[in-house]
Amino acid sequence: MNSKMVKNTSSLGIAAGCFALFTTVAMLIAGRIGAIGDTLTIWDLAGIRQGGAAILALPLLLYTRPWKLRPSQYLVNAIFGGAPMILLLFGGMIYAPASHAGVFMNGTLPIAATLISCIWLREYPDLWQKFGIIIIIIGMLVVGWQTITSVMPGQWRGHLLFIAAGIWFSVWYVAIKAWRQNIMQTLCALLVLNAFIYVPIWLFFLPSQIWTAPTEDLVLQIIVHSLFGSFLAIFGHSYAANTIGPMRQSAIMSGAPILVLLFSVPFLGEKITIYGIIGALAVTLGILFVNRFSFTPKQGNHKP
Asked: Looking at residue 295, what is its pLDDT?
């Protein structure tokens, strides 16, 4: 491959990484709109995300037939990457602003993924990564401290749910790495089982306002969550990781806390505070440290 092709591929990889970043930011903004609104429930948001994305992915899955996964792998993908994680995230947004979701969920993810990788893959962080984890924790504590004097004292409930969502999602994140899943296998395991299990439960048994919601609200959530946030975002993440590398892609994604903080002002009317700025910057810096250097595996093999 000549230098021009390499340069073009890298540029496309960076563009794909930025696309994945902005789909994440859009998901958090739209999730907060849906969570605090009175037209849809968080159960509806999860159902729209999982059901809509499964419909979009079905033609590709029928064509590629990526069925070669064990039942346990299907379950882990569906449980930890699907509807339960989304419900934790959007449930947190009932109590706390989207900017806090950007800090607590995105900050928890690399910490939890590092700990799970130590246990599961025998991969251990180096000194710089440990330093990054400390910075992330400091940033989260700064934002948490803000809630003590906040006019919304119940925000701590949202923070706990965001942290739980980050821990939950990190299990899926490490699992697809351990099992070396390709993008079609991930789409299949993540979306199909969720569509078959969660969507019928949602439609028949869970609180829903899907049939009475205004058309504009449905269109917004379908476009953001089904098309961009779930379906196309997976391709963006995968292409970026395969072209510019997972570390550079992780560095791009570290911009989520700052971007959510900035976009939450015009779209949600949230206020920027000094605590929020310091916390978001600290978490972003910490994520860069955690993902800047590769893991140092312990000698010995692990079974994927």
From this structure: 38
